[in-house]
Amino acid sequence: MKILVLNAGSSTQKSCLYDINGDIPSSPPAPLWEGKVDWSHNQGVAEIEVEKSTGEKLTEEIATDSQSEIMARLLNTMSAGSTKVINQLSEIDLVGHRVVHGGREYRQSVVISEKVKQAIANLAKLAPAHNPANLAGIEAVENLLGEVPQIAVFDTAFHRNIPDAAAIYPGPYEWAEQDIIRYGFHGISHQYCAERAADILDKDLRSLRIITCHLGNGCSLAAIKNGYSVDTTMGFTPVDGLMMGSRSGSIDPGILIYLLRQGNCTVEQLDYVLNKASGLSGISGISSDMRQIKAAISQGHERAQLALDIYVHRLRSYIGAMLASLGGLDVLVFTAGVGENSPEIRQAACEAFEFLGIKIDSSKNTNKLVDQDIATTDSAVRVLVIHTQEDWQIARECYHINLRE
Q1: Which of 183, 182, 206 is nearest to 194 (CA)?
Q2: Does the annotation flag 137 for ligand binding?
Q3: In this model, does residue 331 exceed pLDDT 70?
Q4: Dihedral of CA 271/182/341/153: which sign?
Q5: How far is the C-alpha of 181 from the C-alpha of 164, rounded, in Å?
Q6: pLDDT in tens, 114-123
Q7: Which three-class secondary structure state does DSSP give residue 137?
Q8: In angstroms, rounded to a whole number, what is the distance separating the alpha carbons of residues 265 and 169?
Q9: Residue 209 among known ligand-binding residues
Q10: Is 340 annotated as a binding residue?
Q11: Strand partners, 62
């Protein structure tokens, strides 16, 4: 079964083609074909990069803003030229889409219908930077591949079992009735990492209490018990929770009221500040990239050091909150760009929980091991570094849904 996975964003897009024959492998395979599109650098120009599993690559630019034109060119590289992996596009059996927001209605992956498309469009008010792009990707595939089954895999769905005590905000109850609740995000990544952790440790996922730390430009934690997310740090929007690359994370809401009353900010300016001019970037004044923050620290930059200190403080605080929701901890997972590549962050996060018996092997921690346990043999908690593979998780979801249909 050939499954095309599409992760469409507002300015970038990633696609993968997987071929699954028989049972799902426990370790993620490399995709047959992988394509990336970026139209953020030059207006009206799409930069395309394509690579086959055998190593052949293609890089080109096309002058267009049209999602359908970009998708047509991308898919053409799958069936023609040096990056050809199939004879014709009709060989694609399923297409899986990452859709950021499913709201309260869509709490698991579903086959896309007109009703589902309308719901994704309606939920754009909750995810204006993502759901419209996700929908555009779905419609582009419809235009190009006709009636091939498409499946929406929602980033919010993994958090569907969070209890009301954690999901409902302590404002007026009418908020909950208006669907203003904690949805949580990065669910595809958190689910993948939890299942992968159980595979690596050769344990039953349902027997493990896991905290997954997705630390990239966007950051969130999830507390996972019996295989389900029972708490998470992102909330009604992805701005909640941890300090991030350019997002503030949780702040006193009175600050926003104060700024609005003083007349210093419009709603649009506040939105920009919270999402684009806060976090590591806002505090350091340098960058949202942790690598550049650490480079500045090595040169004695005080605000960069402050940004890192705040980042670590808040990471530790929220790990503690997730720990309380679990009532204990068996596995701590680090993933995404910072989680996978910053031994200093992993070490700093774990040092605060040495009282739990967490012990990191410093050699393993600094050796850039992926999908490995970096804890010492006598650590009371296993500490894993896992390369998150959301595209493969989406392909697995599609495969299982197809079996059920």
Answers
A1: 206
A2: no
A3: yes
A4: negative
A5: 9
A6: 999 999 999 9
A7: helix
A8: 25
A9: no
A10: yes
A11: 46
367 is in an annotated binding site: no
pLDDT tens, residue by residue, 123-178: 988 888 789 889 988 998 998 888 899 999 999 999 999 999 999 999 999 999 99
Average pLDDT value for residue range 338-348: 97
Burial 82-121 (b: 16+ CB within 10 A, else e): ebebbeebeebbbbbbbbbbbbeebeebbebeeebbebbe
Residue-by-residue DSSP string for 195-250? HHHHHHHT--GGG-EEEEEEESSSEEEEEEETTEEEEES--SSTTSSS--SS---S
- The answer to whether the beta carbons of residues 37 and 47 sit under 8 Å apart is yes
Which of these, 144, 130, 46, lies nearest to 90 by C-alpha position? 144
Token output for 78: 């799958």
Nearest to 318 by CA among 193, 187, 221, 217: 221
pLDDT tens per residue, range 304-316:
999 999 999 999 9
Partners of 223 in the β-ladder: 211, 231
What tokens does 1 get? 């079964």
The residues annotated as belonging to the active site are: 155
Instruction: Flag whether 42 is marked binding.
Output: no
- Residue with tokens 């650098």, as numbered in its chain: 41
Tokens 């949202």 belong to 288
Nearest to 348 by CA among 336, 362, 337, 335: 362
Q: How confident is the model at residue 21 (pLDDT cuts 50, 70, 90)?
A: confident
CA 318, CA 232: separation in Å to the nearest integer?
9
Q: Is 98 annotated as a binding residue?
A: yes
> In this structure, what token pair is assigned to residue 18?
């997987």
User: What pLDDT does residue 405 have?
Assistant: 62
Instruction: Tell me whether residue 41 is annotated as binding.
Output: no
